[in-house]
């Protein structure tokens, strides 16, 4: 979709995990201990992490993303017969130091130089997000790091998507939301954002409301789409 253009965008709002930060990188950095199980662990950890956010939202039993991440890791470790307190502690520590995808810093730098407001909107707890942003060298490029802890419920609850509008004083249609999680992209579009789905892994489209405005393979295409090439 190289000819895709979104006009009038005044802020870009990014999901964090899977969009800016590589959620597989924690397990990948522990390959020495996990061996060939590192990828199955990473996949199960992530899928259970998301399931727990949705289930807690439906149950009305919120806990912050740090606890959910630990609970999901415990499930994954038990499922793969890898229960080991020292390994668990190491993996949780590595989750605070997730690697950013290679194009992230350059993309944010280009957008910032063009005067674009930049924010993260994430399920992550504030301390988790601050650590990841600092570790990846993008903290100084962000105007806001917005956590669901401000509203006490995880995405895709509509109250989460209200946060950037409140912070920047902009209508959702004046902002571009980006996520590699298709369900998140659809939910943001339902709320009224202009939305690009960063489909890093070539996944099939979701069958839920509403369709994003476009699809990109990496964030490198973003500056050109919002008029900052």
- Content of β-strand: 5-15%
Query: N-to-C SSE series?
Result: EHHHHHHEHEHHEHEEH
The major beta sheet can be summarized as:
6 strands, parallel
Query: Average pLDDT value?
Result: 97
Output the CATH homologous superfamily of the largest domain: HAD superfamily/HAD-like
CATH class of the largest domain: Alpha Beta
Q: Please give the share of residues in helix.
A: 40-55%
Main-sheet strand order equals 3-2-1-4-5-6
Number of strands: 6
Q: Which structural class do you get from the secondary structure elements?
A: alpha/beta
How far is the first residue's CA from the last residue's CA?
15 Å
If you had to describe this structure to a student in words, what would you say it looks like?
The protein folds into 2 domains: 11-22 and 99-225, Rossmann fold (3-Layer(aba) Sandwich); 25-95, DNA polymerase, domain 1 (Orthogonal Bundle). Helix content is 44%, strand content 12%. The protein has helices at 25-28, 31-34, 38-59, 65-79, 85-95, 104-113, 126-135, 158-161, 163-168, 182-191, 222-225, and strands at 11-14, 117-122, 144-147, 175-179, 194-198, 214-216. A 6-stranded parallel β-sheet has the order 3-2-1-4-5-6, sandwiched between helices. β4, α10 (182-191) and β5 (194-198) form a beta-alpha-beta unit. α3 crosses α4 (65-79). The longest helix is centred in the N-terminal third of the chain and has 22 residues, at 38-59. The chain is globular. The protein starts with 10 loop residues before the first strand and ends with a helix.
